[in-house]
Amino acid sequence: MSVGVALALSDLPVVMQRHPEIIRRIYERGGEPEVRFMYDDRQPVLPVWKDGGLDLVWWGNARGRSRCLPRTGWTWKSTVEQGGWGGSTPGLVRIPAALGLEKGIWYRVRQGMHGLLVADEQGRDTVYMICEPSSHYYQVMTRSNRMPALLDEQI
Amino acid sequence: MVQAYTILDRMYTRPRAVGHLDADCFYVSAERVRDPFLKGKAVGVLGNQGACVIAKSYEMKAAGVKTGEPIWEAVQKCPEGIYIKRDFHWYEALSKSMLEVMRRLSGHVEYYSIDEFFFVAEPRPGQSFQDLAMSMRDTILAELDVPVTVGIARSRTLAKLISDSAKPFGAKAVLTKDDEESLLAALPVTEISGVAKRRANRLLPWGIASCLDLARADRALVRKLLTSTGEALWWELNGEPSGVIHSERPRHKALSRGGSLGESTDDPYRLHAWLVRNLERLIEELHYHKVMPGKLTLWVGYRDGESGEGHARLAVPTDRFDLLLESLRPCLRQAWRRGHLASRMHLIAEDLADSHSAQISLFEPSSPRADALAQVKTQINQRIGRFAVRSGATLPLTDIYTDGANNYDICDVRGKICF
Which positions in chain B touch A135 (Cβ < 8 Å)? Predict the structure, then answer.
């Protein structure tokens, strides 16, 4: 899986770049500002492509903000495919990312990850990162047995 | 100063020397060519298993990460580093583009390795060797976006030492005795390609520690300590080229295929599967070079440092899968150490005979069926993709075949002199 994703600041729309929730997530790597979205943040959010634009939505339900959604930030691809989320009217979304983070290792992602967008009991958008069993390479690299389902890419 | 290469070359009056062009952290640079996001950032390219850093950027090197280091140690030293899976298809494409540019810039270019080239350096009238070195470096960067370092000297060894010491993005011509000696005095003998720790230890009791010590040592002593290879280096260090620039790769004396087994194993079925996989790769190579081996060696390396070998001499040279596998099975039995975890395997084909002129055996029946089958397999794989059709004996390696990156390795890049 991935406990964090990063994007170059310049990849975000200008309006979003000025958002306080973005500004506090800006770091520098190699002289270039980037925005890091971490699951262990006090307010975990992820950028998702929604209705033709980029939006920030809650990343899972780690802190029990919702009483009806699972208290995690990830869901298995097989669960989605088998209709395990049927009752919550889910939608597949794209999570843009340049880098993923797992067990302290930042790895390059060409486009991003697949996400599942659901609404909590108050109608607030929440995204779960979709996972699949790790490839041999990913498993050795990160020592994790699940990896994010990447957009048009296999590592 | 100028060394001639052939009688015809001696007729030239233009000054010439030997050049060495080496791409700076090539795998990382290649990734940056297609992915500018990585520029200026600490980047590590990982081997196919994802366990070790096989190449690193200068930013990652500055953090203390070394080539070959496990990722778990690298990430401690460089937590902001970005890790990428290697892609030899892309590195080869870029390497061949570099070769094309090099051939335009010099009449004699040797494709030494995927990221290194030796060449005959011939400045244009009015151009100095230093100008030439800078011009070549800048041309490669302008046309391919790959940073390289160029060294020019009187011999290959000197040129390589210069480019190694001028990295990154350097260009340096050293052609006077004084400048050569200043350079050599500052470099330990282990900087010379071909002198590792064991050879250096042989030289040390004689007070030979730096490259300059070696260049000034008695030639007969160097030959005694390091054999004729060491003597050739001695000549090179003194500005006398002992080798030529190979514009074409000389014919192979041996062909080999193999490498890491990924996860170490003591499972004989998995080892047999690796044998078959490596044999299929070796046969591809035999077909490409139109040769057939008369001798085979199978080498297995174990995680505890042990190794085993098996040898087979073929009644007649052949490139048929069934016959080669039949010869190699006893080799695997000889090389196998029960209960030891095997981590590497190599198949080596020697005594290579030309396919068209190889002797035909009176005792080995020809097999039109086997030949036809091999042909169909080759044609399908050429059309659909490498390993689309492969022996069923490789089934225990499904995990290896599932990851497409395993299908192309550094040794599959053809035409280069060195591994």
Answer: 402-403
**Whether residues B214 and B113 fall in one domain:** no
> Are the beta carbons of B327 and B293 closer than 8 angstroms?
no
Residues B333 and B283 in one domain: yes
Residue by residue, pLDDT tens for chain A (155 residues) are 789 999 999 999 999 999 999 999 999 999 999 999 999 999 999 999 998 899 999 999 988 889 999 999 999 999 999 989 876 556 999 999 999 999 999 999 999 999 999 999 999 999 999 999 998 889 999 999 999 999 998 88
**Domain of B319?**
255-412
**Whether residues B351 and B362 fall in one domain:** yes
The Cα of A140 is separated from the nearest Cα of chain B by a number of Å equal to: 6
Both B20 and B159 in one domain: the answer is: yes
User: At CB < 8 A and 24+ separation, what contacts does B320-326 make?
Assistant: B320/B367, B320/B370, B320/B371, B320/B374, B321/B279, B321/B280, B321/B283, B321/B370, B321/B374, B321/B391, B322/B367, B322/B370, B323/B364, B324/B279, B324/B282, B324/B283, B324/B293, B324/B296, B325/B275, B325/B276, B325/B279
* Contact assignment for A106 to B48 by CB distance below 8 Å: no
On whether both B25 and B169 belong to a single domain, the answer is yes
Shared domain for B163 and B31, answered yes or no, is yes
Contact between B172 and B151 (Cβ < 8 Å) = yes
Asked if B63 is an interface residue toward chain A (Cβ–Cβ < 8 A), one would say: no
Q: What is the pLDDT of residues A16-41, one digit of tens each?
A: 999 999 999 999 999 999 999 999 99
Distance CA B15, CA B153 (A): 12
Residue B195 shares a structural domain with residue B266: no
Confidence at residue B362, expressed as pLDDT on a 0 to 100 scale: 57
Q: How many CB pairs under 8 A join A and B?
A: 63
Q: Are residues B191 and B281 in the same domain?
A: no
Of A30, A104, A137, the CB nearest to B50: A137
